[in-house]
Give the backbone structure.
Amino acid sequence: MGKVFIAAQDVKAGRFIDTRFNLQDRDWGKHAFNSGHIEGAIYWDLEQDLSDMTSSAGRHPMPSKEQLQQLFKRSGLNYDDCIYIYDQGGAPFAARAWWMLKYANFPSVYIVNGGFESLKQAGVSVSEQEHKYELSNLSLQWNESIYASRNDVKTIVDGIHNATLLDARSGERYRGENEPIDNVAGHIPTAKNFDWEQLKQGSELYANDQLLNTFKRDEEVVVYCGSGVTASPLYAILADCGYDNLKLYVGSYSDWITQFDIEIGESK
């Protein structure tokens, strides 16, 4: 999949997408955008644009292909655009948008490591004016190879398909010791655990040896979390490190528990 993360000082001319969001204050991101954003940037909201909140497939359900195509068209995006996505830094939201664009096979999409403040510090122009783009005419070719459905994950759990499930939540949520959000505690059976917050170094995200030693480079890995949001940066980091056989279970644990059993403790 090639390079995923880019340093703010290496950003060139292109399209910018602002994905700042706060799960505890859902209006914060849009207010932050209106108070100042990278000049020419558009704003994508986690719940209004990057999720289908009318669906029952988890807490931040995957938008339909039609919904995504309309989002990309009204954003004026084209396949030949170089697209830079940022959030507040050290957050999962830019990675969520990046994955959606890669699912639609946009070739040149990057996550700005360090987010909005790093771009400001690098001297990229900031504006309070929202730029309007003409509708684009897109014929999308979807990359189904990076998407995992609930039933795809079930084939892994049942031993029909050989792949590693990787849970991006905290260890205590993974083991079922504490579950503050979903109504069932535990994890998808057979899954390994790597807390995505271990990727954080200040406002930036980086891999570490513990992650890279969790599995072999050539094995298939399906990443999930609670609702598909915080699994996205873990997926993006692995892709940036050259892991090519990756899938994201967007519905994640909150979708899995609507149909199937869970496991408590550590998977063997």
